[in-house]
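B., you asked whether I could sanity-check this one before it goes into the benchmark set. Here's the sequence:
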Amino acid sequence: RLLIIGYGRIGRHLARMAPGFGMEIRAVDPFLATAGWPAADLASPPDLAAGLAWADVVSVHVPKAGAALIGAAELASMKPGAIIVNTARGGVVDELALAAALRAGTVAAAGIDVFDAEPPGPDHPLIGFDEVILTPHIAGLTQQAAERMAISSVQNVLDFFAGQLAADLIVNKDNLK
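And here's what the prediction gave me:
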């Protein structure tokens, strides 16, 4: 059972791949209005707490927006033995609360690709856990990724001038006049 938190382009891409692993998938997005939820797509739990209690694996794909979205209360509501993966942004998951949940056995394991302070220092609270995989957030630093980003950026500029820029590419579209 996979809960995807954040159902934008990356969350939706994960949702297309996860069935290959035989996973039942649900998604919740605190930033996506109900009206914007894709029709005939994944089910959404009634709220984040219900989704966390249901999931065996939680994958986080939301922007950082102030306080941590996943803190001590959210980690405590997770299903015993669950795994959490954060490849979104540092600070979305409270790292101290996650370390405490791992020590207590509330959370079985974690995969962390982003940190509140980068790079993490040698005294970071998640270093030293056998149940944690820590990786640098560098998947986009390959030559092929750089080429795709450059082409995509130029295409976005051309689309803008042609009046065809996809609205889901604009993070602050509500602020544009």
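One thing to flag: The chain is about 30% helix and 15% strand. Otherwise nothing jumped out at me.
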